[in-house]
Design goal:
Layout (H helix, E strand, L loop, with lengths): L10 H7 L17 E6 L8 E8 L6 E6 L11 E4 L1 E6 L4 E9 L7 E8 L2 E2 L3 E4 L8 E6 L6 H15 L6 E3 L10 H12 L1 H5 L2 E3 L6 E3 L4 E3 L2 H5 L15 E5 L2 E5 L8 H17 L4 E8 L15 H9 L4 E5 L4 E4 L7 E4 L15 E5 L4 E8 L2 E8 L4 E9 L5 E5 L14 H4 L2 H5 L1 H11 L2
Parallel strand pairs: 10-11, 11-12, 16-17, 17-18, 18-20
Antiparallel strand pairs: 1-2, 2-6, 3-4, 3-7, 5-6, 7-8, 7-9, 10-22, 13-14, 15-16, 19-20, 19-21, 22-23, 23-24, 24-25
Helix pairs in contact: 2-3
Length: about 450
Amino acid sequence: MKSIMKLSMVLVPVFTMLSFSNLSLDHLNPYDIPHHINISWKTDPATSQSINWRTTELQKISYVEYCEATASPFFSNSVQRQKAESNAHTGDDATWNYHSVNLTGLSPNTQYSYRVGNGNFWSEWAEFKTATGKEEDFTFIYFGDVQRDIFSMGSRAVRQAVLQRPDAKFFLFGGDLVHRGGLNKENWNEFFPTGGWAFQNIPILATPGNHEHIVAKSGENMGQQWYYNFTFPENGPKGHDEETFYVDYNNIRVISLNMCRYKYAEDRKAILEWTEERLKEFKGDWVFITHHYAMHPSARNRKPGLRFPEFKALYEKYKVPVILTGHEHLYARGRIDDEFPVYVVSVAGPYQNAIQFQGWEERTGTSLQLFQEINVSQNEIHYVSKTILGEVYDEFRITKSENGEMKYTIGEDLPPQSLLPPDRFEERYKKELVDSWEEDLKNYLILHP
């Protein structure tokens, strides 16, 4: 392949380098080309980039080709190649080969071009940029559950987020990216086209939801596709690799906790102790923690009560500013018995629940697809929740003084809350929950008009 990519004075070979080695796209099945391509981090975002993709069963060997990006298309002499780690996995639709590479030794604050594949089958060239590794202002995007009607409806949130903030440094998903984590049909085969080229250019971080597990209701046995589709850090408690982990991006730390394992005493203890160590050691500006289950159930059809009391106490002890969660299929933002953290529950997909109104919520919403722009500077977190029309639905700021004291300020002139019950409300909920809706809503609006 290297010989094909050498520069030539003839135009045809140059064109061939940037296409598919003389193989006409008209005769290709889309799955023949490497697909489900996404980038993330296994190691330092300033000097590395993990890349994942999938190919047909016949393409057992695959590579990443990469180089520092240039505006010129004549860069073949600069291209380096790295062989992927490849694993075959038989799913519900076919046997696929899953490939991953962790590129290391990269230069900070540098844009790279890359493609993946082998032989006649290559992806298009795409770009990523390494982190600066320094304190700077930047934005990342948070998504709650996508889960159902992923391609047809969930794509609205992901694509609008890119249009609104093309400068976002990474995407963070709060679990339930799909509905059945062990299946490709109507699940992973929809999730990756939902992001399309954006997932090739903007890194993904994600925490597992219960629906990434084989038994969704109990959160048991992660679907193997999680580990094959993504390459996340292996710096969590033993046996929790790529589920509970942290990433330091410049001046912030993002911590993912797989709280689906909370019900197991040994796992709970390991995650709690590990989390405290990560909070205790961090000397940067801000910590964001994400786990799928919200601290309080907020959906109207869930049993009320505090889910993770030990973790709530830990967050308060270390004054974690923001906890990002999902699972409830609605929007909620507020604090629970203390000034910090601010808890956020959000949903990016179309499946929506009616609100329970537990009393901790300062702002809520349902029948909305949302995404969150989180703007970070050394002394401020500026959080903006937007609808898929790009309209601001919620906003707050957390500022930090020189002595480390934090101040929480809610945005002004926010629009009315979207509190209509979701579609088929009376069919989906027990009669007593439907009958008590108006009174609960009235009482909530007295406190939060």
